[in-house]
């Protein structure tokens, strides 16, 4: 079984969010189940030199894009036993940021086309091309159009995974001909047309053989208009091809006992949390109080993450005996408001604007609680990492948060976190107060930490589900 993952980011080469974590971990999990999984990524300027120096050049060629032909080189690096290919074109991929460029329509159309152009020269013929999010949505479209008669691709099947339906890659109508090289026949509501524009995510959803998303709850949520981002009709139409498979986390990398980025290690998780909490408080010049609970947040600063709920009641949160540590980057308005609050509460609230993997790991380790009140959350990895590091999540019951966090039930003593249902700041505040209340009871709390940190969030179960789906698809191909 040969699978090619096509994605725009992947750990350890380039990461802006959870997609990169998935691309960095799922292929390895699938390989350990016997599948030959490889990954193809753009060769961004941001990839650290240590990896660049290990890459070898495989092939070069040109890629047709609209009326032009663009240069393409393919490099290879085997990382953690997973062969990675990198599509190299400095004009497209040596930029200050990996997304958000004016010509993203062209950059990612080029990427998808380049993958399909180059693959026959790589002596790797996948049974399945597994594409992730809008950046690779055009692969399935191109396979059914420009490459429909190409002998190399006759038996290739496609899977498209939605990691976040909110980001769709929507571009003006003229790119259909100018960049994608397709006629107006494709500009219909059941194909590429999306409210007068062209939508790359929609291409993935229309033309791929199977669709998945990253949690069972999100799979059902996105079929409703509130979460469906104007694609819910199409998703309902493809309901029988759509499944939700929960993401895992890389349990080797996120292992509190061996994580080299942590301030300190100990044999016992509770003790280790205590030591790291002290260090974190010292580092951030917060009072070094052992019994004051620390609430952590590590997040993209965007409305999706429920930040307005937090801002709405932050003064009330600060009235409790707590400390809060927030690490995030994103929209200016959130960066500014959280920074202002940090100045107002220097003894209680520490805010670091930026993306810092090492600091993130130390916050997971040192915090007692992890706040993630997302408005929607396709899966969410942060709550799983937090639990593994013994930081108890407080979440809104949506998407993957609902599928991974069970609110503590004092009658039965079961649960691994705290949750609330409505998009309501005071419901969130109540959940926080409830968590702080139980924090005062070491017996309850230590059990919660134990329960949460022992949850199995590894990739094996999910990898098995993906593998079963690939096998099912291949069986269907063999029959036809
Ligand atoms: P999303 O993909 O929507 O951003 P996830 O919870 O699925 O959310 O994944 C977020 C990942 O990115 C986690 O690994 C989290 O630790 C990491 N992360 C988010 N913001 C930061 C940051 N500012 N610095 C370091 N890591 C971050």
UniProtKB/TrEMBL annotation:
EC numbers, comma separated: 2.4.1.21
Binding site for ADP-alpha-D-glucose: 15
Entry-linked InterPro entries: Glyco_trans_1, GS/SS, Starch_synth_cat_dom
Domain spans labelled Starch synthase catalytic: 2-237
Reactions accelerated catalytically: [(1->4)-alpha-D-glucosyl](n) + ADP-alpha-D-glucose = [(1->4)-alpha-D-glucosyl](n+1) + ADP + H(+)
Enzyme type, top EC level: transferase
Keywords, comma-separated and alphabetical: Glycogen biosynthesis, Glycosyltransferase, Transferase
Pfam family, one: Glyco_transf_5
A single GO molecular function term of this UniProt record: alpha-1,4-glucan glucosyltransferase (ADP-glucose donor) activity
All residue ranges annotated as the Glycosyl transferase family domain in the record: 281-436
Pathway recorded for this protein: Glycan biosynthesis; glycogen biosynthesis
Protein family according to the UniProt entry: Belongs to the glycosyltransferase 1 family. Bacterial/plant glycogen synthase subfamily.
Functional description taken from the UniProt entry: Synthesizes alpha-1,4-glucan chains using ADP-glucose.
The name this protein goes by in its record: Glycogen synthase
Lineage of producing organism: Bacteria, Bacillati, Bacillota, Bacilli, Bacillales
Gene name for this UniProt entry: glgA
